[in-house]
Each structure stands twice: as structure tokens, then as C-alpha cells.
Design goal:
Length: about 220
């Protein structure tokens, strides 16, 4: 659907965002956003896509002639098929929205063993294609220090964190979705998908603290991105 300037104003009101809040969240200039808000200028498609994505990440849903808060929902995926479904969902989100995807506590060897090398290679190829086509996809991943399995190096930025901080209970954040994984359950793994703006933002802040604590990995004396 086409999002109107009036809907943008309504979304700003729903979030109680001032111009500076909006500019910080989108990374766009406050002057340009002010002109969009007042209707002085019409945003280009890429700019509008960014604006809509940011609002949706904050829990705003654009509906016919208005906006509303998205309902908070959760889902549970289990086993190999559940993990494949999860990765398909990440790819779909990245394809449609770009933006930043974050991962903490991951062990890519475990992922590959669970979803099979064939599916893993297909997924990595699809995500690499998305990264190259969109140009606005950022994927940040925190591994345990010493882990050198950088299988998604084409589009991931990796950092190591010390073993005493690392926890092998991965969580992902993409858009407003928080995914927490437990590989020790009987069905292995169990993936809890939670769509809650408040909880997702809290985990996003935790990730940022871990990211600031983490450091670029070094392999054979060379820093690895």
C-alpha cells in the first residue's frame, strides 16, 4: 500500500516523536524529514522505504487511511524444519527491508549441522545476493573468542567476545522480531519468536553493550571482518 504524509504524521504522533527523534532513528537529515512532514517535498522511494521500515520496527502498522500499534505476538518453532523456517523468515525480512540484523551467542557449526550443509549453502547464497542487490543490509554477529567459522563473511561483520561472557543460547533481532534459541531441548532446537517493541529494544541495547565489549577476531595475525 502507499503510505501518505498524513499517515506519517499519525505515526509520529503515536510514537510521540519529535523531529530529532525521527532523524536519529532513520539516519536521515532533520531538514529533509521536516520538509516531508510538512508536505513541502515528496520523498524518493528509497527514503520512504527507510521511513516505513523504521516505523514498522517501532511497532507501527500502516492500515487503510490510518495507523495502529501492531499486536504483540509470539510463535514457537522446533526441530530442523523449524530452524529452516526461521532462516527463511530472516531472508524474507532482509529481502524486503534491508536494515540491520544482529546475532549474539551463535555457533555456526551447530547451525550447519542442524539444517544440513546443503540448506546452509543455499541460505548463504540467498543472503549474499540480497546484500549485494540491496546495499543497505548490515549483519552483526558476536561469536565466542577462538571461533573461526566465518561462513557468512560475505555479508556478516564478526566480533569475538570472551569465553566468560559468551553464552551458547543464541538470540537474533531482525525488525521488531526477537528470536531466542535453545539447542538443548528434546526437540532441538526450540526457537521462540517474540514481536514486542519494548522487549526487542531492550535486547537490542544489550547487544550494543556486548558489541562495544567485543573485538574484531584475529586469524593468523590478521583481523577478520
Amino acid at each position: 500500500m502507499t503510505v501518505t504524509i498524513e499517515q506519517i504524521r499519525m505515526a509520529l504522533g503515536a510514537l510521540d516523536w519529535k523531529l530529532d527523534d525521527w532523524a536519529e532513528a532513520t539516519g536521515l537529515s532533520s531538514v529533509g524529514l521536516s520538509n516531508i512532514r510538512t508536505g513541502t517535498s515528496q520523498p524518493q522511494k528509497k527514503t520512504m522505504d527507510t521511513i516505513v521500515r523504521v516505523f514498522e520496527e517501532q511497532g507501527i502498522e500502516f492500515i487503510h487511511e490510518g495507523v495502529r500499534r501492531k499486536p504483540e505476538v509470539f510463535d514457537i518453532l522446533t526441530g530442523r524444519e523449524g530452524l529452516r523456517q526461521f532462516f527463511d523468515g530472516v531472508h524474507e525480512y532482509a529481502s524486503k527491508n534491508g536494515g540491520t540484523i544482529i546475532m549474539f551467542g551463535i555457533d555456526e557449526t551447530t547451525f550447519i549441522d542442524t539444517i544440513t550443509p546443503e540448506f546452509s549453502q543455499d541460505y548463504l547464497k540467498r543472503m549474499t545476493d540480497v546484500s549485494q542487490k540491496r546495499g543497505d543490509l548490515e549483519v552483526l554477529a558476536i561469536l565466542c573468542e577462538g571461533d573461526t567459522n566465518f561462513c557468512a563473511a560475505e555479508y556478516n561483520e564478526y566480533r569475538w567476545i570472551s569465553k566468560d561472557v559468551f553464552q551458547a543460547v543464541p538470540f537474533y533481532i531482525y525488525g521488531e522480531t526477537l528470536a531466542i534459541m535453545d539447542f538443548e531441548t528434546t526437540t532441538g532446537p526450540t526457537i521462540v519468536l517474540l514481536k514486542s517493541r519494548a522487549i526487542t529494544n531492550a535486547y537490542r541495547k544489550q547487544f550494543q553493550a556486548f558489541w562495544n565489549m567485543a573485538y574484531p577476531p584475529s586469524v593468523n595475525g590478521e583481523t577478520k571482518k
